[in-house]
Specification:
The chain is of the alpha+beta class. It has two helices and five strands, in the order E-E-E-E-H-E-H. Strands 4-1-5 form a three-stranded antiparallel beta sheet. The radius of gyration is 19 Å and the shape is elongated. The chain starts with a strand and ends in a 15-residue tail after the last helix.
């Protein structure tokens, strides 16, 4: 189970989109506990952030630019 914070309001099917599954509305700012699979899905789509994970953890850091040597020849 993962605890996530909803980043933007959306409707989802936490049990999967199978027959008999109930649609659930998630509201921006709501903090909920969801299954690992559903959590990874909505985090991957940018709809939620894992609680305790900082912004740096969710986005890879940019590589530092290469240092160029002076070419005064």
């Amino acid at each position: 189970m993962k605890t996530v914070t909803i980043a933007e309001t959306f409707d989802g099917y936490p049990q999967g989109a199978k027959e008999g599954s109930r649609r659930t509305t998630y509201t921006e700012g709501q903090e909920i506990e969801v299954s690992d699979a559903f959590g990874e899905l909505i985090i991957g789509k940018g709809l939620a952030r894992e609680k305790g994970a900082g912004r740096a953890a969710s986005k890879p850091e940019a590589a530092e630019p290469a240092v160029q040597k002076d070419q005064d020849a």
